[in-house]
Amino acid sequence: MRVAAHAALLMVDKYEIFTWDSDIYYIAIVMCPDRKLQWFKNRNYDREALKTIKDMVVSHFEKYYYSAPDVSLLPPHSQQKKKGRFIRKFDEPETSGSFSKDHIQTYLKEPLVSPAVISDAGGYLKYWHAAVNNRPSLAKMGTDFCSTPASSVDAERAFSVGRRQVNFMQHNMSPNSFRSKVALGSWQHAPFFPKITEVSKIIAAQLAGETFEGLSDSDSD
Questions:
Q1: pLDDT confidence of residue 16
Q2: Residue 113 is assigned to a structural domain of this protein
Q3: Alpha helices of 81-152 — where are they, by DSSP H?
Q4: For residues 180 and 162, what is the distance between their CA atoms, to the nearest angstrom?
Q5: Which has the higher per-residue pLDDT, 157 or 59?
Q6: Residues 119 and 190 in one domain
Q7: Element containing residue 83 per DSSP (H, E)
């Protein structure tokens, strides 16, 4: 039992090390409004690690999601006032230390959202979807990272399927044909996917350069 417990701890430590190689794990947790950085604090992350995670999230937000407002489009009274000749210092902009509502710094300073609120909204993705109008940049980042798969089951299943699809009889299959074949196999049990007879009619119509009458234009696309 001691050997088994030790092996389990080594496995947990291994995945903990791997997570530092990918920022998705940390950003996804921070973009959960009921967790944020508090989730790591509750798990005894030290101050240096917390700062690293915060800097990682802020850097990613400002690099890929945030676009600073154009100062020239702001009302005159909200633009920076020019300083006098003798008190101006190299025309440096004033820094108030405040951020807009749609900034990651504002989001991190806000109190945690109750899990009940997330549940009533229908989950994290619907919560962020409802925030698109008020906080578009945060909503985009939250949607991207909260939709990240929580496990590698789908990827492992794709590898297994791919091994069965490409055998010694199909070594000349093109990448496009392989992707189409794997995608078709993964969709066959989805509720939106038509029956195999309908699929064969669609393929026959496409090969003949016609439009299948059983589907609308959007469905045939």
A1: 63
A2: yes
A3: 104-109, 115-121, 124-130, 136-146
A4: 11
A5: 59
A6: no
A7: none
pLDDT of residue 88: 41
Instruction: Give the count of beta carbons closer than 10 Å to the beta carbon of residue 137.
Output: 19
The string of pLDDT tens digits covering residues 46-64 is 999 999 999 999 999 999 9
Identify whether residues 125 and 53 lie together within a single domain.
Answer: yes
Cα–Cα dist 95/42, whole Å = 33
Angle at CA of residue 157, ends 179 and 191, nearest 5°? 75
Q: Locate tokens 């064969």: which residue?
A: 200
**Can you give the pLDDT at residue 13?**
64
- Domain co-membership, 106 together with 214: no
Residue 61 domain-assigned? yes
Whether residue 107 is found in the same domain as residue 17 = yes
Give the span between the Cα atoms of 214 and 49, in whole angstroms: 57
pTM score, two decimals?
0.58
The H or E element spanning position 180 is: helix 175-187
Helix or strand (DSSP H, E) at 63:
helix 47-64
Tokens (6 digits) for 217: 């234009």
Spatial neighbors of 173 by CB under 8 A, at least 6 apart, are: 165, 166, 181
For 159-218, how does the pLDDT look when each residue is reduced to its tens digit (9 = 90+)? 776 666 666 666 677 778 877 877 777 776 777 677 778 878 888 888 887 655 555 444
Which of 18-53 are b and which e, b meaning 16 or more Cβ less than 10 Å from the residue's Cβ? eeeeeeebbbbbbbbbbbbbebbeeeeeeeeeeeeb
Question: Amino acid letter at 77?
Answer: H
The rounded mean pLDDT for the chain is: 77
Domain that holds residue 172: 167-220
37 domain-assigned: yes
